[in-house]
Amino acid sequence: xxxxxxxxxCRAYSTFLRHRKTHTDARPYRCVECGDxxxxxxxxxxxHRVHSGEKPYGCSECPxxxxxxxxxxxHGRTHS
Length: 80
Prior knowledge:
Layout (H helix, E strand, L loop, with lengths): L12 H8 L8 E2 L6 E2 L2 H12 L4 E2 L6 E2 L2 H8 L4
Antiparallel strand pairs: 1-2, 3-4
C-alpha cells in the first residue's frame, strides 16, 4: 500500500490506514480527564498513564518502573 500524499509504502493495510491519519488534522480520540485529543487510540491509551500514574514497565534489576517501554530500555543501559 502506497500513500498517495508522500509515497510511503506500507506492507499491512492497517499500518497504511494509521499512516494516512498523519496527513489530516483529524484527532478523534479525546481524553476525558484533560480534553487533549489524539490521532490514534493507542496514543490516547498511553496518555492515560499521565493521569493514572500507571507504570507498567518495571526494571528487573531495581525497583524503578516506567510509563513507556523505551524509558525502561534507556534505563536498562544504566545497569550495564
